[in-house]
């Protein structure tokens, strides 16, 4: 009788209350909010590029984001998994890939790049969180290797909204070319050159032209605690120090560090690609190792490799090392007598 | 000395203003009291009463069943109506005595008598504390006399009175410090005498400036006593983090505070020790913060052990229709209740009610390895890696990554943007590891 009464009572109130493990409160920061902050941080640089390169750049950005979201939706649906376009990670991937393409990229190139980024590099591994390599960079590198003409032969100088775009090479491309053909580089940075490089008056990918705005976006992300300073500082610092050493050894063959730091995709890569949560180490110590590694590989590729630019390859190679770095830098538990990491 | 930071931590919304200004009020005698026998960590006390027994206030109704066990007492005089299984706020149903008060509130013989404490030696004090059924009242409910009995070779040089109260919402310790500073210090002096400790630190988070002031005034007359204001960061009141913040000593992983010559006692426990030693009153009541937007009138209530949550909540104006969570303890570490039949135990520091729009349903999105949990973990664990191991049932790997050092403070899950139920994973892993080692041993 008593038992029955008790059971009845339990049934009465039972469903009313939610029973779950502690904690019962949350700071309510969700993945979509973080991704949106990344988009906001990239917006100024993207908008400037649209202003500089005109409609073609706008088209590339729109097509890229749309196709990334479409592939995310379609592949999840095909695999009968939950719809994840609401976490906005595909928007970030699409935007980042667009910023890594020349403004002259044809529409199909953008779509193919996103197919590789979203389907091959991300969803086949299980989606956000499981991908070992940065999806946008996989997309870019696949395009770079498979379609070198479309990816590297049609750089244009920013022409504002004008139609008579002048085909030229990127600053890093020029340096590599002259080094290979003449045996020395022809880089003499004047004050105007530096200003032009900083504000984005140069040939390059859509998103890598404006160092100043990329830096502002990166600092915004650090301020918002979306990323920490460790990877960008280690990455850019290493590139500076290494190129400085080579420049001192032989200035006729190796450009000075300021040239290397503000050209190419270094800022875009260091602040927005190398800091991708999923594919970079989780501890601060690991992040520094990762950043230094990215810097070293970038400089080696730029100075001695076949490609003029090495940021993408460097980050992807370090992505592969991330699990090892994580293992080696696992935090030491508080109060541990031996200063030795587990594993 | 203060201002030293432990690693990690989070800054949840505190909501303490709901009850911080409210004086402790006594709960009227409820119609029945449900007194659980399992109220301490360690072995469950042995029940001594059966249905129909008459009991006096303070009478032992369950006796200690070993060293790590304390007696349970009748919170008032009356009749034992049933001895049966009832919801215990820590989780499952446990055996409890249902006592119908007779209204006399008559003490058992020999109790509630002022003692000559000056002539007592340490063992006598410890005996009174054990007989009074004292446990850690911050929520851990570890028997107090065991903490006062360091093994041969371990000595204590510092006693920390924990008034940090870092859990959001709760103000029970805050009010106790405001209203009974001298009693708390006298209780602490008994601990100090048992262990021959000269240095006593009262630790309070800076968000309680009035309590800091009150306690500072109270310690002026006491030699060797001091008050330290702590930075407001959760979990400042966690034992190991507190010891580090105050003394710079690191309790070894898997070790106890006594390994670094420190004893930590909650201020509520010190107050209970005052009652136990000075007046020979067993632990029969405690201060409970009943709060949250689910109740009309949040309060700090001095309630008898065994008061049902339903009675407590009724006393605060009843439960709002859309209340979906009732928590015993604070929102970071407390236990969600399935029934309001749960009754106050020695470890019940608060009853927090959350309404529908305040409750977070933890979903389990994949880990995006953002590292927020690693930054938040005060034990310097890697919750991200641990949770991934545990999802794959790799419990050995979780053990190797020190999951057993997790203090379950909830900081990791609080900041996780994928809202992964991390603490839940770690509890599961600990249980599995215990099972494995039992099998192996």
What is the general shape of chain A?
A: globular
- Let me know the number of strands of chain B: 17
Number of domains of chain A: 2
User: What's the Cα radius of gyration of chain A?
Assistant: 23 Å
**Major sheet summary line of chain B:** 6 strands, mixed
The neighbouring-strand order within the major sheet of chain A is 1-2
First and last CA, distance of chain A: 57 Å
Which structural class do you get from the secondary structure elements of chain A? mainly alpha
User: What's the architecture of the largest domain in chain B in CATH terms?
Assistant: 3-Layer(aba) Sandwich
Most extensive interface, chain pair and sizes: A-B, 47 and 72 residues
> How many H/I helices of chain B?
13
Round the mean pLDDT of chain A to the nearest integer and report it.
Answer: 87
* Count of DSSP-assigned helices of chain A: 15
Order of helices and strands of chain B: EEEEEEEEHHEHHEHEHEHEEHEEEHHHHH
Low-confidence blocks of residues of chain A: 339-343
* Oligomer description: heterodimer
Q: What's the number of structural domains of chain B?
A: 3
Which CATH class of the largest domain in chain B is shown? Answer: Alpha Beta
N→C terminal distance of chain B: 44 Å
Helix percentage of chain A: 55-70%
The radius of gyration over CA of chain B amounts to 21 Å
């Amino acid at each position: 009788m008593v038992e029955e009464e008790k059971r009845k009572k339990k049934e009465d109130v039972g469903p009313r209350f939610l029973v779950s493990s502690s904690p019962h409160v949350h700071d309510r920061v969700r993945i979509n909010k973080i991704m949106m902050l990344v988009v906001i941080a990239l917006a100024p640089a993207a908008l400037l590029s649209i202003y500089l390169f005109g409609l073609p750049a706008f088209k590339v950005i729109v097509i890229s984001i749309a196709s990334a979201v479409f592939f995310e939706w379609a592949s999840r649906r095909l695999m009968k998994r939950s719809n994840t376009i609401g976490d906005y990670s595909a928007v970030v991937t699409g935007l980042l890939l667009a910023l890594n393409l020349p403004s002259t990229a044809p529409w199909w190139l953008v779509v193919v790049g996103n197919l590789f980024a979203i389907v091959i590099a991300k969803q086949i591994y299980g989606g956000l969180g499981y991908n070992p390599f940065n999806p946008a960079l996989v997309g870019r590198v696949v395009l770079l290797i498979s379609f070198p003409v479309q990816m590297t032969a049609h750089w244009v100088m920013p022409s504002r909204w004008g139609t008579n775009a002048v085909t030229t090479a990127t600053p890093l491309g020029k340096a590599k070319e002259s080094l290979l053909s003449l045996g020395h580089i022809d880089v003499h940075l004047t004050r105007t050159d530096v200003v032009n490089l900083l504000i984005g008056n140069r040939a390059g990918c859509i998103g890598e032209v404006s160092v100043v705005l990329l830096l502002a976006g990166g600092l915004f992300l650090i301020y918002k605690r979306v990323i920490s300073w460790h990877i960008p500082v280690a990455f850019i610092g290493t590139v500076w120090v290494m190129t400085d050493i080579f420049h001192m050894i032989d200035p006729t063959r190796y450009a000075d560090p300021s040239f290397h730091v503000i050209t190419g995709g270094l800022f875009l890569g260091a602040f927005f690609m190398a800091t991708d949560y999923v594919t970079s180490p989780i501890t601060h110590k690991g992040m520094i190792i990762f950043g230094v590694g990215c810097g070293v590989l970038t400089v080696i590729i730029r100075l001695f490799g076949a490609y003029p630019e090495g940021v993408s390859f460097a980050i992807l190679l370090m992505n592969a090392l991330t699990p090892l770095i994580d293992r080696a830098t696992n935090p030491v538990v508080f109060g541990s007598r031996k200063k030795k990491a587990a594993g | 000395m203060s201002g030293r930071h432990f690693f990690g931590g989070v800054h949840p919304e505190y909501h303490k203003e709901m009850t911080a200004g409210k004086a402790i009020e006594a709960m009227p005698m409820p119609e029945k009291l449900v007194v659980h026998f399992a109220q301490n960590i360690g072995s469950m006390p042995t029940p001594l009463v059966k249905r129909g027994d008459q009991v006096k206030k303070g009478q032992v109704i369950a006796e200690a069943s070993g060293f790590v066990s304390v007696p349970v007492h009748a919170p008032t005089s009356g009749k034992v109506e049933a001895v049966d299984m009832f919801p215990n706020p820590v989780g499952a149903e446990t055996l409890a005595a249902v006592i119908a008060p007779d209204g006399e509130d008559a003490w058992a013989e020999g109790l509630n008598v002022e003692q000559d404490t000056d002539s007592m030696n340490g063992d006598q004090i410890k005996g009174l504390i054990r007989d009074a059924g004292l446990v850690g009242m911050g929520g851990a409910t570890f028997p107090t006399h065991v903490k006062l009995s360091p093994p041969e070779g371990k000595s204590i040089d510092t006693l920390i009175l924990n008034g940090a109260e870092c859990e959001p919402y709760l103000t029970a310790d805050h009010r106790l410090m405001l209203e009974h500073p001298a009693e708390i210090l006298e209780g602490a002096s008994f601990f100090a005498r048992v262990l021959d400790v000269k240095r006593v630190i009262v630790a309070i988070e800076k968000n309680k400036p009035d309590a800091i002031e009150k306690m500072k005034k109270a310690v002026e007359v006491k030699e060797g006593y001091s008050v330290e204001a702590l930075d407001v960061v959760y979990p400042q009141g966690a034992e190991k983090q507190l010891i580090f913040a105050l003394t710079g000593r690191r309790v070894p992983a898997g070790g106890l505070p006594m390994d670094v010559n420190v004893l930590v006692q909650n201020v509520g426990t010190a107050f209970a020790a005052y009652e136990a030693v000075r007046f020979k009153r067993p632990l029969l009541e405690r201060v409970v913060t009943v709060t949250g937007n689910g109740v009309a009138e949040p309060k700090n209530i001095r309630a008898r052990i065994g008061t049902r949550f339903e009675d407590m909540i009724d006393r605060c104006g009843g439960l709002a229709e859309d209340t979906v969570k009732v928590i015993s303890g604070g929102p970071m570490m407390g236990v969600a209740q399935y029934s309001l039949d749960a009754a106050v135990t020695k470890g019940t520091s608060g009853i927090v009610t959350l309404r529908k729009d305040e409750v977070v349903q933890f979903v389990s999105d994949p880990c995006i390895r953002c590292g927020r949990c690693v930054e938040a973990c005060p034990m310097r664990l890697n919750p991200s890696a641990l949770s991934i191991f545990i999802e794959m049932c790799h419990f050995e790997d979780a053990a190797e990554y020190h999951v057993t050092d997790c203090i379950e403070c909830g900081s990791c899950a609080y900041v996780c943007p994928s809202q992964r139920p991390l603490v839940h994973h770690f509890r599961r892993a600990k249980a599995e590891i215990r099972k494995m080692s039992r099998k192996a041993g």
